Structures are given as structure tokens and as C-alpha cells.
Amino acid sequence: MVQFLQQLINGLSIGSVYALMAVGYSLVYSIMNFSNFAHGGVIMFGAYFGFFFLTLFHFSFPVAFVSAALCTALLAVLIERTAYKPLRERKAPFLYFIICAMGASIFLENLVIAIPAIGPTFRTYPEIFSKEPFHLGLLTIGRLDVLMFIISAVCLALLVYFIDYTKVGKAIQATSYNIKASALMGINTDHIIIIIFALGGLFAGIAGVLFGMKYTVYPQIGMITNKSFIAAVFGGLGSLPGAVIGSILLGIIETFTSGYISSQYRDLIAFVLLIGILVVRPSGLMGKTTEDKA
Amino acid sequence: MSKKITAILLTCIMIITIGMTGCAKPADTAPTASDTIKVGWMGSLTGDQAVWGQCEFNTVKMLFEEINAKGGVLGKQLEAIGYDTKGDPQEAVNVAKRLTSQDKVVAIIGPNASGSAISIASTLEQAKVADIATVATNPKVTVLDGKVKPYNFRVCFIDPYQGAVAAGYAADVLKFKNAAILYDVADDYSQGLAEYFEKTFIEKGGAIVVKEGFKGGDVDFRPQLSKIKAANPDVIFMPYFFKEVALSANQARELGITAALMGGDGWPSDQLITMAKDAVNGSYIVNHLDFDDPEVQDLKTRYKAKYNQDLELNGFLGNDAVLMLVDAIQRAGEVDSEKIAKALETTDIKGVTGTIKIGKDTHNPEGKEAAIIKLVDGKYVFQQKYSPK
Amino acid sequence: MDTYVQGILILAGINLMAVLGLSLLTGFTGLFSFGHAGFMAIGGYTAATMTVKFHWPFIPALLMGGLMAALLSVFIGRLTLNLKGDYFCIATLGFGEATRLILDNVQYFGGARGWPGIPNYTTLTNVIFINIIGIIILANLIRSRHGRNMIAVREEELASQIVGINVFKYKMMSLMISASYAGIAGGLMAHYMTFLQPKMFSLIKSTELTIIVIFGGLGSISGSVLGAVVLTALPEVLRSFASWRLVVYGLAVIIIMISRPEGLMGGYEFTPSSMRKLFSRLKKKNITAEGGK
Q1: What is the extent of the structural domain holding B335?
Q2: What is the pLDDT of residues C143-157, one digit of tens each?
Q3: Which among B1, B7, B185 is the nearest to C268, CB-wise?
Q4: Owning domain of residue C85
Q5: Quick check: B291 pLDDT over 90?
Q6: Nearest of B1, B91, B68, B75 to residue B35 by alpha carbon
Q7: What ipTM was assigned to the predicted interfaces of this complex?
Q8: What are the residue boundaries of the structural domains of chain A, listed by start?
Q9: What is the pTM of this model?
């Protein structure tokens, strides 16, 4: 029983990391209908921004946190302007968007490795919060896990509020429903796309800094962001609640697979499950099943 | 139309580039001045293990400069030509081919990854150039199906030995009865060590209570560690590299696991201490040498003076590889790659990592003792030289 | 020719074989795969099993490798080909990584520690020979009715379905052929490296293959040939430039997509007739230029 609860806590904690990352994929997908693979690179930059703000410029944690998130928002918008906008204007097929996103992701990851001042070695965040965990009977919960859980919940709640209750949010919803019709209705879809990328970038920064604090910073964070992308697919690309629920579920499934079936074959089981879900319900658990945009 | 012409022009440029690759070669095939001895080096200059690779190459270059300053070998100057393998077996083959056929080296030092060292064997045999691997610990680097590969040598001990040392020390000296293993299922080094640790530990009468895997690139090990905690082992064997060691050790302590931790030569690094000083306190490492041994201090200070960085593990083994090669060239009496390979077979020298006496049937240094190191307050404290009975 | 240049050419040939297959899938059918390294791995391990354990000759072993990869692709295709673009991508990514993970754990093949001692059968001659056959088959396929149907599927899936093209059948056909090409490439690789390790078939390898296809030009076989040779040779030319190589790759992909999405060759092919046309057009231009003077 203790084992079960402990694994559940582990699963929730891993799931909440995935959730913060998966939201960015879903946001962009909901409007642009393509998987923004560059998001993983932006998350990695977020982690490095946070690290350098803390160690090089000696910002306090909240300041570093917010400035890192702003920097990544800027970066995400920059990528959109340079890499995706020309494609949009040309009405290029979605394949080109994915290829472009992949190019951007390769560029970002290797840029960090190639810059001598950063390089391939991994960095450790200074200890801001005590590593000493909370103990609940025989269970242990990391302090950072709790913090991450709270920050994720607050940020996601703010995002939902923003999308559901503000004018801009309503415009986003309309655009995600039908981009051409919204443009005809007088919504500046170009601005909406910028806002979406900025939001995605903000979340990438938050995810990056928290990830870096909890684990470490290194150029191949993309390995983990792939997992969170899978979680987003699992929950249904383009759906925010889907991304969150998919992530939490994936985290829990992964932990229980390691805990009760086989840790050697954990990823294999996760992938088999993913393909299974896609076969049974291609749009994921909560994805949009509107018209086919082939 | 203009677009089409651009495309064609681009194509032409590409073809010319390729042509140039082919033509770049004749320039230096002219008989080289006979007063230099070209020695190849290969290893990871980029990627996860770049820190180690860079240090190894730096050490080789430094030693060559020192030797040259003293008059060189057989009155000739040594020249190091190094390329990056990125830890990728395919790149390693390219590099080996380039070193042997274009740069015409007489011997190669490196690489550090076993996969790379294994894949270059057939290239070496074709070119009849010997290679001295530094930290490639997979047994198949030098021996395949019971037959020794004629041109592959190494200066380090091998995985079965390292695994056996760890298991023997845990069972016989530390008197541990129950061990857990956490290893990287997608890594050759980790898989090898885990296998031989398990074998020896069970032979010694111990029990492996739980064996858990993860996949390289993972950052969260708590699901596996929670399971390990429930099995309550005396010791957890962690045969993988320092980044994952730091993360998993921190998480183990966070979950309240108090068992001792043990690892192999993938551990020693300053990064490990920075990141997990408290978590790895009291852990045991099987290493190639004692970092505080008075005999290695000279090398450490020389390196520090030249590059203003600390000498990493690979540097020590790189040093011994250079010693081994220089000794072989001297005994061969002439700069001929085949004669050097022959001479390497009868190597018997003393390096900083111990006595290196190459076995004729294995091309491994025989009877090399491992150093057991304990981590105490962020310091690598030497315990004893140990070889399993 | 020294062994180094020969080695690079062999590698380019091996990459080309895989790229040809991928070019059919991505360039001509519009499906994007992140898992082709998985098919290469299947082909490589199968071919090596055939030569090492069953002592088959080289060419049948290669074909067996291609066949196994094709068989597996039928299974994968059945499950995933109905998925929309992004979902298909992620499914192939999952497949590629899963293949690697299984091979990492199969101790019969040496697991993650690899499988040394595979005979060295791949030579420059047979690589070139196999590639020429591969190109001829592919070129004929693309010019056939089937090939045109595949291109139709790439251009407009819905419309093709309406005019009576069995979209699923053509996607499956394309995937199968491309998987068997990748499988044969894997077999060539195994017998060139004489060593197999699951690490060699990572996501990076899959991405590299896709980049070559894009670089050469989606929908052009000559582009793929050129792409494979250039992108295999380029890092060798720029050895000292190593760490910046992938940065440039990434940037190049973006620039190509923005400014010249059709890649280097952009759907054009090097054929005797196209060359003739080109020269005659150039001549005409010269004549008009002179006439103007």
C-alpha cells in the first residue's frame, strides 16, 4: 500500500512536469494544426536562461523565473516570425511546417552545444529550495514537487481563465475553431498567432526553469520533451485539458509500469500504449474530432 | 528560369566540393619528412563525454611536446593528429580510415568508447596499424570469439573484471549480503558491468534482491528507486555515468534510501561532487587509479599548469597509452606500424595507473589491480588496491 | 583510391539506399517518418543473422533484410497509416525508438553491447551496383501509374480519394517499398561496419535521413542522390568545424523550407533528355543575347 501510494506520488510529480511542457504543444496545435517540435528547444533555452540569470547575473529566484519566461516567449515569437510566417503566407502544406520546426529544434539544440561558453556539459542550478522532502508517515514528497505542482496548477488556471473569460481568449477560441472564418469576422489572426506563440513560449520558460531546478540543465532536454509531446498526443493534440490529463496519465502509467511490470521495458510499453490509443481513438483522449483537415 | 539556373549552379558547387575532397589527398601523400612520427588520436570531442575526450587529447598533445623537447623518439619528433568520433561507431570508422590511409599514422591512441573501438577493428587489420584504446572496457574490443584481434590493444581493465572487483569488494570486504542493481538498459558499458556484478556477487553467496533498468536520457528514477527501497538492499550498484549518478543518488536520498552506493569508472568527475555531494557521501567507486597517489601528482600538476584545468580520468589512461606506444616504438627500433604492433604485444611497463603487462592472447594489461575509492565529503579517498580472488 | 575516400563513398551509398526509400515515402507520397532508422536496424540485424548464423551468401541475406523490414512495415502501416500527418509522425517515432529498445534487450544479438564480428562483405562495387538497381526500380515505379497515384495522394489526399485512388493502398505500398530500401541499407551498413549496436539506429539517424531528403529536394530522385553524397561528404570536409555542423544543418533546413522548399533539385531530375533540353535552352539564350548585341 505504501509502495502504491509512493508510486502514485512519483507518477503525479513526473506527470506535472510533462503537463507544463505539453501545454505548449497543444496551444500551437490548436491554432496552427501542426506539431511545433521547436518547443523542446525553447524549453531547453528556458532552462539555460534561468540558470544564467541566477548564477551569472545573481537575480533573485522570482525575478530570474519571470525574466526567463519572458525571454523564451520572445524566442518563441522570433521563431514564429522567421520560420513559420513565410510558410503561412505561402499557404505551404503542413509537412513544411513540421520540417521547419524540426530544423529549428536541431538548430537550437546544437547551437547550445556549439557555443563554447555553454557547451555539452550539464549544469546544476544553485540550491534555492531545500532538497529535504516532506514526510507523510512512510511516504516522502519532495519540496520541489509540491512547488512545481502549485506553480503548474496556478499557471494552468490562469491560462484557462485567460482563454475562457477574456476578449483575446475568445478570439483565440474562435481562431482555433476556424481560422479563415475568424479572419473574415475581423479578428487579426496574425496577432492571435503571435499571442499563441508567446503563451507557448511563456510556458516553455516556466517548464524549463522548473525542470532545470528539479533535475539539471543540459542540451538534450529534448529527449524528455519528446515524452511530453507523446503525452499531448495521448490526451489529444490541440486540447488543453487533454494535454494536462494525458500528461498526468502518462506519468502515472510510466511509474506503475516500472513499479509493477518491468522498468527495462517501460518505454516500450508506453509506446505500445500510445499506438494503441491512436488506433482506437486517433484524436487522443480529448482531442478535437471536428472536420478532417487533410 | 533564373531559379533553375541557381539550382544548377548550386549543384555544380556541390559536385566541385565533393571533387575537392577526393583531390585534397594527393597534396600530402608525398613522402613525409622522415623526422616526424605521426600518431593518430580519436575520441569524443563533442557529445556527452566531450569533457573526457578533450582532456585525453590534451594530455596526449602535452606529452608529445614534452617528449619532443627531450629529443623525441628514435631521434624523431612525435606529431599527434586527432579527430572527433562523437562517440559514434560509424564516425570512428571514418576517422580510422582517414588516419590510416590519408594521414598515414603509425599507431592510434583512443577511442574512449567501446563501440567505437570495436567497429574500427577491420580497418586496422587492413591498414596494419595498431590501436591502443584508453577506457574502452568491453572485452570484445580486443578478443572476439576466443581469438585475439591482432591490432587492438588497451591500457585499461575490462568490464568483467571491473564488475567482479565491485562485487568482490562489496561481498568480501564490506560484507554486504543483499544488493540492488540500477542500470541503463540502452548503454553497452552499463549493461556489461551490471551483468558481471550480478554474476560475481551471486557466486560470492550474496543475493541480488532487485535489478531495475532505465533508458539513457531519463532524469527521473524514483519509480525504480521506490521499488529498490521496498526490497531494502545493503548496497545499490549504479554502473553508469556521472550525470545519471548524480540525479539518481539525489533522488534515492530524497526517498529515504540509506543503502551504500557503488559504481564504476563512469563516476569520477567534479560535476558529480557539485551536484550530489551529500547524496554520494560514503559511496564506493571502482577506479583505475588512486588520484592522490604521490606518483601521479607530477602529471596532474603539469597538466594543470598547461591547460589550467583539472586532469580527468581519461588523461591518466591517455598518459599510459602514450608511455606504452613510445616504449613499443623504441623497442621496434624503427617507425613501422607492423613492427610497432608486434612490439606492443610484449609491453611490460609501469604507468601511472599501475603495471601494464600486455597478455599475448588477450592484448589486455594482465593482473592490473583496481583502486577502490570512497567518497568522503566531496573528496575521492583511496581505500585500497583490490583484485578479486 | 585510398580506403578513406572509398569508405566515405560506401557510407554515402548506404545512406543513399535508405534515402531513396524515404524519398518515395516523404517526397512522393507526402508521409513524414521519424522511424526509418528502425527499419534499417531490422534489415541490418536480419541480414547479419543470415550471414553469420545461417551462412547465407551476401545478396540473399540483404534481400531477406529488406523483406523483413517490409513485412514489419505492413504491420506498422496497418495500424498507423490511417492517422493524420502529425499522428503518423509520432507513431513512427514510437516505432523507431521501440525497435531500438527491444534490440537493446535481446541478448542473442548482444543487446546494447553490440554485435561484433560480422563479415565485411560490403564493397564500393556492390554498393554502387545495388544503388543503381535501386534507382532504376524507383524511377520506373514513379513514372508508372502507381507512382503518379502516390504523387496525387501527396498533393491532395481527399481529392485523390474522390477520383477513385485507394489512398490507403498507395500509402501502404509506398511505406513497404521504402522500408525494404531502408532494410537493405541496414544490411549494407552491418556488413560494412562489421559491427552492429542499437545505438547506431537512433532518432538522430532517422532525422538525418529526412534532412537529406529535404535537402536534395522533395520529389526528386537525383536530388536524393546529390543530397546523400553531399551531406555524407560535407562533415568529412569540415572535420574541424564539427560542432557547428548540426547548427548549420538546422539553419539550412529552415532556410530551404522558407526560400526553396523544393530543395536543391526541386522536383527536377538529371536525365539525358532534361540535360539536352537545358543545354538547348542555354544555347538559345546565348544566341538571343548575341543577337541583341
Answers
A1: 36-157+293-358
A2: 999 999 998 888 888
A3: B7
A4: 3-292
A5: no
A6: B75
A7: 0.86
A8: 21-220
A9: 0.86
